[in-house]
Protein backbone atom coordinates (compact mmCIF):
# COMPACT_ATOMS: atom_id res chain seq x y z
CA UNK A 1 0.00 0.00 0.00
CA UNK A 2 2.87 2.35 0.76
CA UNK A 3 4.36 1.69 -2.66
CA UNK A 4 1.09 2.40 -4.44
CA UNK A 5 0.75 5.59 -2.37
CA UNK A 6 4.26 6.66 -3.40
CA UNK A 7 3.58 6.08 -7.10
CA UNK A 8 0.28 7.95 -6.75
CA UNK A 9 2.06 10.93 -5.19
CA UNK A 10 4.78 10.85 -7.86
CA UNK A 11 2.22 11.03 -10.63
CA UNK A 12 -0.04 13.62 -9.03
CA UNK A 13 2.49 15.95 -7.44
CA UNK A 14 4.76 16.15 -10.50
CA UNK A 15 7.53 18.64 -9.72
CA UNK A 16 6.47 19.09 -6.07
CA UNK A 17 7.09 15.39 -5.37
CA UNK A 18 10.79 15.89 -4.61
CA UNK A 19 10.06 18.73 -2.20
CA UNK A 20 7.29 16.88 -0.30
CA UNK A 21 8.63 13.31 -0.33
CA UNK A 22 11.99 13.78 1.37
CA UNK A 23 14.41 11.16 2.66
CA UNK A 24 13.50 12.05 6.26
CA UNK A 25 9.78 11.61 5.60
CA UNK A 26 10.31 8.31 3.81
CA UNK A 27 12.33 6.99 6.76
CA UNK A 28 9.63 8.22 9.17
CA UNK A 29 6.91 6.46 7.18
CA UNK A 30 8.95 3.24 6.96
CA UNK A 31 9.56 3.25 10.73
CA UNK A 32 5.88 3.98 11.34
CA UNK A 33 4.89 1.00 9.19
CA UNK A 34 7.30 -1.25 11.08
CA UNK A 35 6.00 -0.06 14.46
CA UNK A 36 2.39 -0.49 13.28
CA UNK A 37 3.20 -4.03 12.07
CA UNK A 38 4.91 -4.95 15.34
CA UNK A 39 2.04 -3.59 17.45
CA UNK A 40 -0.51 -5.33 15.24
CA UNK A 41 1.34 -8.62 15.64
CA UNK A 42 1.39 -8.25 19.41
CA UNK A 43 -2.32 -7.43 19.48
CA UNK A 44 -3.13 -10.42 17.25
CA UNK A 45 -1.23 -12.70 19.62
CA UNK A 46 -3.30 -11.52 22.57
CA UNK A 47 -6.79 -11.97 21.06
CA UNK A 48 -8.73 -15.08 20.05
CA UNK A 49 -8.05 -16.70 16.66
CA UNK A 50 -11.60 -16.03 15.41
CA UNK A 51 -11.29 -12.34 16.33
CA UNK A 52 -7.90 -12.25 14.62
CA UNK A 53 -9.45 -13.61 11.42
CA UNK A 54 -12.32 -11.11 11.55
CA UNK A 55 -10.02 -8.13 12.19
CA UNK A 56 -7.60 -9.32 9.47
CA UNK A 57 -10.46 -9.73 7.00
CA UNK A 58 -11.79 -6.23 7.69
CA UNK A 59 -8.34 -4.62 7.50
CA UNK A 60 -7.50 -6.64 4.38
CA UNK A 61 -10.64 -5.42 2.61
CA UNK A 62 -9.94 -1.81 3.64
CA UNK A 63 -6.31 -2.01 2.46
CA UNK A 64 -7.37 -3.73 -0.75
CA UNK A 65 -10.03 -1.12 -1.54
CA UNK A 66 -7.63 1.76 -0.77
CA UNK A 67 -4.89 0.27 -2.95
CA UNK A 68 -7.37 -0.47 -5.74
CA UNK A 69 -8.60 3.14 -5.61
CA UNK A 70 -5.01 4.42 -5.85
CA UNK A 71 -4.24 2.12 -8.78
CA UNK A 72 -7.35 3.24 -10.64
CA UNK A 73 -6.28 6.86 -10.14
CA UNK A 74 -2.73 5.96 -11.25
CA UNK A 75 -4.09 4.22 -14.33
CA UNK A 76 -6.19 7.21 -15.36
CA UNK A 77 -3.32 9.64 -14.67
CA UNK A 78 -0.93 7.54 -16.77
CA UNK A 79 -3.49 7.35 -19.55
CA UNK A 80 -4.02 11.12 -19.42
CA UNK A 81 -0.24 11.72 -19.47
CA UNK A 82 0.19 9.35 -22.40
CA UNK A 83 -2.51 11.21 -24.36
CA UNK A 84 -0.87 14.54 -23.52
CA UNK A 85 2.53 13.26 -24.64
CA UNK A 86 1.08 11.98 -27.90
CA UNK A 87 -0.56 15.37 -28.49
CA UNK A 88 2.74 17.13 -27.77
CA UNK A 89 4.66 14.83 -30.09
CA UNK A 90 2.22 15.51 -32.90
CA UNK A 91 2.66 19.25 -32.42
CA UNK A 92 6.46 18.90 -32.11
CA UNK A 93 6.35 21.18 -29.06
CA UNK A 94 7.36 18.69 -26.39
CA UNK A 95 10.81 18.72 -24.90
CA UNK A 96 12.77 15.48 -24.65
CA UNK A 97 13.13 15.74 -20.86
CA UNK A 98 9.38 15.93 -20.30
CA UNK A 99 8.73 12.96 -22.55
CA UNK A 100 11.47 10.90 -20.88
CA UNK A 101 10.22 11.80 -17.39
CA UNK A 102 6.62 10.92 -18.22
CA UNK A 103 7.72 7.65 -19.86
CA UNK A 104 9.80 6.81 -16.79
CA UNK A 105 6.85 7.50 -14.46
CA UNK A 106 4.57 5.42 -16.65
CA UNK A 107 7.04 2.51 -16.69
CA UNK A 108 7.42 2.73 -12.92
CA UNK A 109 3.65 2.76 -12.42
CA UNK A 110 3.25 -0.27 -14.68
CA UNK A 111 5.96 -2.13 -12.74
CA UNK A 112 4.29 -1.34 -9.44
CA UNK A 113 0.97 -2.45 -10.93
CA UNK A 114 2.51 -5.86 -11.70
CA UNK A 115 3.66 -6.07 -8.09
CA UNK A 116 0.12 -5.22 -7.02
CA UNK A 117 -1.40 -7.92 -9.26
CA UNK A 118 0.97 -10.55 -7.88
CA UNK A 119 0.09 -9.31 -4.39
CA UNK A 120 -3.61 -9.81 -5.09
CA UNK A 121 -3.09 -13.28 -6.49
CA UNK A 122 -0.91 -14.36 -3.57
CA UNK A 123 -3.14 -12.89 -0.86
CA UNK A 124 -6.46 -13.97 -2.39
CA UNK A 125 -6.41 -17.47 -0.80
CA UNK A 126 -5.87 -15.92 2.64
CA UNK A 127 -8.71 -13.43 2.13
CA UNK A 128 -10.96 -16.33 1.09
CA UNK A 129 -9.92 -18.19 4.23
CA UNK A 130 -10.80 -15.17 6.39
CA UNK A 131 -14.23 -14.95 4.76
CA UNK A 132 -14.85 -18.66 5.37
CA UNK A 133 -13.90 -18.27 9.04
CA UNK A 134 -16.17 -15.24 9.48
CA UNK A 135 -19.11 -17.03 7.81
CA UNK A 136 -18.63 -20.49 9.29
CA UNK A 137 -16.20 -21.84 11.86
CA UNK A 138 -12.50 -22.51 12.30
CA UNK A 139 -12.48 -26.19 11.27
CA UNK A 140 -9.47 -28.42 10.60
CA UNK A 141 -9.93 -28.03 6.84
CA UNK A 142 -9.93 -24.25 7.16
CA UNK A 143 -6.76 -24.38 9.26
CA UNK A 144 -5.05 -26.51 6.58
CA UNK A 145 -6.25 -24.10 3.87
CA UNK A 146 -4.96 -21.18 5.96
CA UNK A 147 -1.49 -22.73 6.23
CA UNK A 148 -1.57 -23.45 2.49
CA UNK A 149 -2.51 -19.81 1.83
CA UNK A 150 0.42 -18.65 3.96
CA UNK A 151 2.72 -20.35 1.43
CA UNK A 152 1.39 -17.99 -1.24
CA UNK A 153 2.00 -15.00 1.01
CA UNK A 154 5.63 -16.00 1.42
CA UNK A 155 5.78 -16.65 -2.33
CA UNK A 156 4.70 -13.03 -2.83
CA UNK A 157 7.80 -11.84 -0.96
CA UNK A 158 9.90 -14.01 -3.25
CA UNK A 159 8.27 -12.82 -6.46
CA UNK A 160 8.49 -9.08 -5.76
CA UNK A 161 12.29 -8.85 -6.25
CA UNK A 162 11.94 -10.87 -9.46
CA UNK A 163 9.36 -8.42 -10.78
CA UNK A 164 11.51 -5.43 -9.79
CA UNK A 165 14.52 -6.93 -11.59
CA UNK A 166 12.39 -7.67 -14.62
CA UNK A 167 10.74 -4.24 -14.89
CA UNK A 168 13.34 -1.78 -13.56
CA UNK A 169 16.56 -1.65 -15.57
CA UNK A 170 18.83 -0.04 -12.95
CA UNK A 171 17.80 -2.61 -10.32
CA UNK A 172 18.37 -5.42 -12.83
CA UNK A 173 21.81 -3.97 -13.66
CA UNK A 174 22.72 -3.63 -9.96
CA UNK A 175 21.74 -7.27 -9.32
CA UNK A 176 23.77 -8.42 -12.31
CA UNK A 177 26.77 -6.39 -11.09
CA UNK A 178 26.49 -7.95 -7.63
CA UNK A 179 26.23 -11.44 -9.12
CA UNK A 180 29.29 -10.79 -11.31
CA UNK A 181 31.27 -9.67 -8.26
CA UNK A 182 30.10 -12.54 -6.05
CA UNK A 183 30.34 -15.39 -8.54
CA UNK A 184 33.83 -16.18 -9.79
CA UNK A 185 34.28 -15.78 -13.52
CA UNK A 186 35.49 -18.76 -15.51
CA UNK A 187 37.56 -16.91 -18.11
Q: Care to give the gist of this entry?
A:
The chain has 187 residues and is mainly α. 88% of the residues lie in helices and 0% in strands.
What can you tell me about this protein's structure?
By secondary structure, the protein is an all-alpha fold. The chain has a single domain (2-182), classed as Rhopdopsin 7-helix transmembrane proteins, CATH 1.20.1070.10. The protein is 88% helix and 0% strand. The longest helix is centred in the middle third of the chain and has 43 residues, at 49-91. The chain is globular and about 60 Å long. The protein starts with a helix and ends in a 5-residue tail after the last helix. The mean pLDDT is 79.
Provide the CATH superfamily.
Answer: Rhodopsin 7-helix transmembrane proteins
Specify the CATH class.
Mainly Alpha
The CATH topology is Rhopdopsin 7-helix transmembrane proteins
Report strand %: under 5%
Amino acid sequence: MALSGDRFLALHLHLRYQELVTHKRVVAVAISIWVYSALSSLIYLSISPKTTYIVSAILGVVYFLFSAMLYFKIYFAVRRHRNQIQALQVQQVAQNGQIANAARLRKSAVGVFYVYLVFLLCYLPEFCCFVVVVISDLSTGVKVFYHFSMTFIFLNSTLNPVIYCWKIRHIRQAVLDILRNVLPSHS
